[in-house]
UniProtKB/TrEMBL annotation:
<comment type="function">
    <text>Regulates the DNA-binding properties of Runt.</text>
</comment>
<protein>
    <recommendedName>
        <fullName>Protein big brother</fullName>
    </recommendedName>
</protein>
<keyword id="KW-0539">Nucleus</keyword>
<dbReference type="GO" id="GO:0016513">
    <property type="term" value="C:core-binding factor complex"/>
</dbReference>
<dbReference type="InterPro" id="IPR036552">
    <property type="entry name" value="CBF_bsu_sf"/>
</dbReference>
<feature type="region of interest" description="Disordered">
    <location>
        <begin position="200"/>
        <end position="235"/>
    </location>
</feature>
<dbReference type="GO" id="GO:0035206">
    <property type="term" value="P:regulation of hemocyte proliferation"/>
</dbReference>
<comment type="similarity">
    <text>Belongs to the CBF-beta family.</text>
</comment>
<feature type="compositionally biased region" description="Basic residues">
    <location>
        <begin position="213"/>
        <end position="227"/>
    </location>
</feature>
<dbReference type="GO" id="GO:0003713">
    <property type="term" value="F:transcription coactivator activity"/>
</dbReference>
<dbReference type="GO" id="GO:0043565">
    <property type="term" value="F:sequence-specific DNA binding"/>
</dbReference>
<keyword id="KW-0175">Coiled coil</keyword>
<dbReference type="Pfam" id="PF02312">
    <property type="entry name" value="CBF_beta"/>
</dbReference>
<dbReference type="GO" id="GO:0006357">
    <property type="term" value="P:regulation of transcription by RNA polymerase II"/>
</dbReference>
<dbReference type="InterPro" id="IPR003417">
    <property type="entry name" value="CBF_beta"/>
</dbReference>
<feature type="coiled-coil region">
    <location>
        <begin position="160"/>
        <end position="187"/>
    </location>
</feature>
Amino acid sequence: MHAMSDPAALAGMLPFDSIGLYEQPKPRFIFKMPRVVPDQKAKFESDDLFKRLSRESEVRYTGYRDRPPEERQMRFTSGCREGHTEIAFISTGTNLQLVFDHSPYNNRGCDFQKENGKVHIVSRFIMNGVCVRWRGSIDLEKLEGIGCLELDEERAAIEDAALRDQIERYNQRLRDFEDKQRAYREHGEELRAHSHVHAQRCHQTRQPPHAAHPAHPHPTHPVHIKPHSQGALIS
């Protein structure tokens, strides 16, 4: 869903069953942005935008405003039967694109039989982190009616449980990551200690052994030179 004119309503309007057909693979260690806030009821009751939209007020169909009235009526009815329409709160100017169950067998989201000349619509979605339900009726000829937002407590409970599970899984992954990091550091310290001891042993092995007794130098023998005999001639 998109709120087009109210800046406060632009953030976080999601359908309940969003399908990411072309989602790119994500890293294994990532925290997905939560769909809802931790305390949805408190936000719904305290937020100014929700306060205004929770009061029943006039709404009108906003689709195909440049077309003739007859064509707009036909397109509005056709869109409702397909399960979607666009409406705006007249008092605040907040535009909403509604998507709902259009099955003709249960009339849970779109009911043409409840009141003659009108269609009753119920649309569930997440707006600004809060599960809400738009409920109202629109005249098929005037393309105007009344409606309001309500807190969808049933959906809120489901999303709260999913949020708690998501946070717990994220915390568990953090704990597993920290345990792996701790084990890696401890293993590295053991390897460094073992390497240090091994280096010391290798250094001691390479040193030459000390002699038990100091080596004595060999005694020098005097060299005797015989003198030449007297009267010898050198030629």
